Amino acid sequence: MTPFSKLRGTIPERIAEIRRTLPQSVRLIAVTKQVSVGAMREAYNAGIRDFGESRVQEAEAKQAQLQDLTNVTWHLIGHLQTNKAQKALEQFEWIHSVDSLKLAQRLNRLAEQLPRKPQILLQVKLLPDPNKYGWSASGLLKDLPELNRCEFLNIEGLMTITPLGLTDPEVLAVFQETRELANKITRQSWPHIRMNQLSMGMSNDYELAVKAGATMIRLGRVLFGDRPN
Fold first, then answer.
1. Strand 73-76 to 50-53 pairing
2. Percentage of the chain with pLDDT > 90?
3. Does domain 52-213 have CATH number 1.10.150.120?
4. Which residues make Cβ contacts (< 8 Å) with residue 108, sequence separation at least 6?
5. Residue 214 contacts residue 198 (beta carbons within 8 Å)
6. What pLDDT, on a 0 to 100 scale, did the predictor assign at position 7?
7. Among 187, 196, 111, 93, CA closest to 149
8. Segment holding 157, helix H or strand E
C-alpha cells in the first residue's frame, strides 16, 4: 500500500494520484471529519463529489457553508445514535453506519414521511472489536427477516471497518468475508434488501479493499493529511 510519507503535493495532486490506481467502478468518498471547508473546496474542484462525515452536527455546519457546490452527495460514516436519526435523514443521502436492527427500524419509521427513500448500508463487525459497532455475520442473517420489512429504506449493501493491528492478509480476509456475506444474502433473494454496494477500505487499507471487491472506499488522511485527535 502507498505510504503516507510518499503522498506529497497538493490535495488535487493526491486525489489524481489515487484515482489513477482505482477502477472506475469504485466510488471515492472523501472523509472530511475535522477537515476545513477550504480543503473541501479544493477537493471539490479536483473532482470529488462524495463527502463523508462522522458527526451530524459537524456536517450540518459545513453543509451550510458549501451550499453553492452542486452535485454533492453526503455520506454519514460515523456511529449514529437513534436520537439523531431524524437529523441524519435530513442531511445525508447515504448512511453507511446502520449497525443494529433497532436503528434500522427507527430510520424506517421516520423515512415513511420523506419524499425519498434513504440509501443505507448495514455495518458488520466480523472480528471482535470493542471500539467498533455492527452486526456479526450470524446476527445479521438472523435479523434479515425484520430488515426486509423496512420497506421505506433502500438497503443497498454492507459496510465494514477492520480492527487495528491486523496484518495485510488478515485485513484482506475480513474484506473477502464481507463480500462473501453479501453474496450469501443476495442468494437468499430478499425483496427489500440489495447487496449492490460494499463500503470497505480507508487510508491504510483501501488497496486491499479494492482487491476484495469494494465499490466504495472512504479516504481521509491519505487525501488531507493527519488531523487532530
1. parallel
2. 92
3. no
4. 149, 150, 151, 152, 153
5. yes
6. 56
7. 111
8. strand 154-160
Q: What phi and psi values does residue 52 have, to the nearest 5 degrees?
A: -110, 125
| Total Cβ atoms within 10 A of residue 141 | 14
Rounded to the nearest integer, the mean pLDDT of the chain is 94
- State the Cα–Cα distance between residues 135 and 195, nearest whole angstrom: 15
* Residues 208-220 pLDDT 10s: 999 999 999 999 9
Residue found under cell 495485510: 168
* pLDDT tens-digit map of 106-158: 999 999 999 999 999 999 999 988 888 999 999 999 999 999 999 999 999 99
Burial class (CB in 10 A: 0-12, 13-18, 19+), 82: middle
